[in-house]
Queue: 2 jobs
Job 1
Amino acid sequence: LSRFLCSSSPEESKSRPSMLRHLTTKLKATGPITVAEYMREVLTNPVTGYYVRNNMLGPDGDFITSPEISQIFGELLGVWIISEWMGAGRPKQLQLVELGPGKGSLAGDVLRVLSQLRSVLGEASVSLHLVEVSPALSLLQAQNLTRSCSQEADSEDEPVYRRGETAAGLPVSWYRRLDDVPAGFSIFVAHEFFDALPIHKFQRTQKGWREVMVDIDPDKPDKLRFVVAPSPTLASSTLVQADERRDHVEVCAEGGVIVQQLSKRITEEGGAALIADYGHDGTKTDTFRGFKGHQLHDVLSSPGSADLTADVDFSYLRRMAGGGVACLGPVSQRTFLKNMGIDTRMQVLLRSCVDPTTRKQLISSYDMLTNPIKMGERFHFFSLLHHSRLAKPKKTEGLKLDKKKSPAPLPVAGFTELSIS
Ligand code: SAH
């Protein structure tokens, strides 16, 4: 996650040791665990997981993200969603699915744009579907999106664990897993979601690829350390590419599975996915890091007190998406937002804003999002699309079409510069 500011609130540090105790007990019983298992436990353990506590995002938390920096970010993503819905031929039903919605700010900004452009959407029925593991964050999302008009499911086994309705009357449903979201034409959005998914780490050794594991430090029983597995693990034999040239690689198998699911849904039901995160194209090695109070934090010390993250490998996601969908990007956040018209939107906002403090704030958040040395070049946008979206229009035999009216595929907003004519 983008860890730029904020400090942990003092009350948060009280219940810390329990995650370490939980992990050392586990390690004593089972021996070393994979980095993926460590990351999964630390971030999403239902009792002590980092994301299960709710105040990591924003001024009182550990980090801040683009949707929290400026409403323009979510608004432009709202425009992207409408543009893809139009590009798909304006289907009657539009499921908006967000993976890892945090505080729900992005979804809120998207919904505002959708309601402003209601006339464009016509009769289409819109619903919001949120995939969120953290019950605490789901409550926060419900407060922000449904004015607390939401209800928890009676049983823990229900695929929809919470339901609500927005002020405009749109249904909102919460799920723990993407698998539980119903089929249907959907636009998926994942902002700073994939970087939070567990990664496996592998080291090239003289004996071949070996998995990096987490173990108890034999000299300090309350400290953890990395070890290299002496023999191959299931993951080290299956997840490293045969032609891999790096000496150290990180593979987010769970992210790969989610992209496969997205790809299958888009192929079968139509729609698109927009994935925004920091990452690389299969070139980086060790990117696993922790963030606490917007400072770098040792990934193995006081687990559960800091966010853990790894850069997203877009080349891996592209490979896992397979041939069933078209992939666009990654393009830098700066390029994407500029293509989406952030400069015009800024001018409109500045023109109608006289208060000098608000103007200053608008300009500084614009700078944060687009400046190459801030978030502009570190974050990337990547998209999965139904093949029909990029297909050349078929020539209609025997029909004399007016050239100007012949259907041309709409450009994909954000990835190509939009020319407004
Ligand atoms: N998209 C938001 C929040 C990013 S934080 C923003 O940009 O501000 C990561 C989000 O993903 C949190 O909401 C976290 O609870 C959720 N999350 C993390 N791991 C998850 C998983 N395995 N399944 C579903 N949600 C997950």
Job 2
Amino acid sequence: MSATSSPAQLLKQYFGYDQFRPLQAEIIERVLQKRDVLVLMPTGGGKSICYQLPALAQPGLAIVVSPLIALMKDQVEALRANGVPAAYLNSSLSGGEQTQIERNCTDGITKLLYVSPEKLSSPNFINWLKTLPISLFAIDEAHCISAWGHDFRPEYAQLKALKQYFPGVPLIALTATADKLIRHDIVAQLDLNDPEIFISSFDRKNLSLRVRPGRNRLGQILDFLEKHPNQPGIIYCMSRSSTEDIADKLYKSGYKASCYHAGLPTADRSATQEAFLRDDIQIICATIAFGMGIDKSNIRWVMHYNLPKNLESFYQEIGRAGRDGLPAKTVLFYSFRDVMNWRDMFAQNPTDRQELQIARLDRMQQYAEAHLCRRRILLNYFSEESVTDCGNCDVCRNPRTHFDGTVLAQKALSAAIRLQESVNMSTLIDVLRGSRSRAIVEKGYDKIKTYGAGADLKADEWREYLTQMVNTGVLDVAYHDKYAIHRGVLAQKVLNGAHQVWLVKPEDRIEMKPSEETRKPRKQALEEALFNHLVEVRKQLADQHNVPPYIIFNDNTVREIARQRPANRAELINISGVVQQKVAVYGDAFLKALREFVQSQGGGSTAMRGSTYQFTYELYEQGFPVEQIAQQRNLGIGTIQGHLVWLLENGYNIDWQQFAQPHEIQAIQQAIPRLENPSPKNLFVHFGEKYDYLKIRLALSFFRKEQGGYLLPA
Ligand code: ADP
Ligand code: ZN
């Protein structure tokens, strides 16, 4: 690095980016002026560059405090892949390794040294640091210093001494926690000297927000996965057992899913995490124990199987998706049951903050039940002004249908009153719908006047509407009295007809309208196919070099490569996210893959006329059998079979019955849940080569459509 390079030049040289994100340039400038700063940016906002770049722009060694070994390892790996001399010191290293790293620091080779907070409280270490030219201290995850936060680390308290030992060295504290109280705490605890505080917007525009009713959750998840093949994601669950259960079911449905919770042995947990980072596992079903320190930039979706207990946790967890800035999806499943479970849990473990806990849970519930733009609710919660609808949440995309529900409300109220305000929501629904269950008949509930008055609605619909009535004060839930449904404050007026009740029709589809997944124009389909191919190349390279794929290039960069199709190294380095070091190590492999792809299109030049799928489709339409398509295109039969399945899955008109009988598909599908790893090859062997690969691939493709279902397309 030359002393004369500007921050912008260093940004391109070491990170491959052409522009700073908002606030990055100002923060860097301030650190270079040796000022203390506090940086508040959401996860994925781009905090790291705020201290990594000043470290590269000046002489000396930057010390970075990071709370987790996994996090340090990840960051150092990413920096080294970009050609930045970085290292970490922690308890996982051998004595010999430590000595070598220390020598590189004293020799002035290393520019960034990552350490644990414990390390910085050791007097020997401090004394050693005093002998070195320290350029800056960066305190990552700085909220860990605050006892008010959710990740309090007592070791962080020792960091206060840094300002005494190194008064002239600038200190930069960074966190994604926006809380005001915590902000003040960080400044005080670290003894920051007249710090400038930078607060970036917490809006993550690339994250779509959506809430779904917590019914048939597994079916909804499978439906979603079907539409987002191979995209890595996390499913957060409330209990350890449900993480195991869901992972197991997804696995049996043919997905690479695994569970993660604090009750599992450490070795298993790190193996799972590592496999996820490397894209060997697609889906992690986890408790909140999973996530902090996951720097994986290509998490494409996050789901909440259960309601989180507050919006802070929720926002942190969804924030792990889409760190590369590409679109990512979030889905929250909401059921009132979860609210009750949290309330019970708070009641069982009373603390002095119980009221606060409940108030925060209320806000979470309001978010889940809202019929207003969800992002506005979130941003307002985090004290950020937001006056326009976002266009990227389910409410904005599917404006709700309101209807006059006064009669429904009267029926519900009348039933609740006749039942002495003593039954919970489920029983009330049974009575309204005229259930003949024993519990209802034995108690004589079938004798009351409103019994069966609401038989025209499904139980789920009633649940939805009753919940809305609770939220608007028509009904009330007696939490202290077995959740019995009582009259709400508006009950009398509703019964008199003096108050009209507006209800909102529930949504019934998981996909947003207009769906981004609807058919893509050809050019886009081609780019998509090339992207997928390059992702495979990246994975092979990652395995060869023993690093997670996103360390090589993040998804955004791979997308750009697919879009621009660089023909040589010089064109490759111009792409955002590509640095010299990576061109040297991986460039040729990507360029070769691009050339081969172009050739496989049948076009000799860089101009691609149509996607490889399109060519196969055209030949198929002309009536050629698979073998001849393969011959004409100079591709393997397996490849053509794969194309046909892809075409079918992407809405092209492929008559699959030409290739397999429905009963054959069913026979294969019955074996899928029974095999530990139902890959095409294993199924082929399982049936003693009775069914060809195309039949097996079709069976697998249809199988995922429904949980364990033997579904055939119409
Ligand atoms: P945080 O630590 O705030 O969660 P990171 O520092 O890990 O976020 O950055 C998130 C992602 O954004 C990374 O993939 C990083 O390379 C990328 N990024 C950061 N700054 C820029 C920039 N100026 N231009 C493009 N991408 C950037
Ligand atoms: Zn919105």
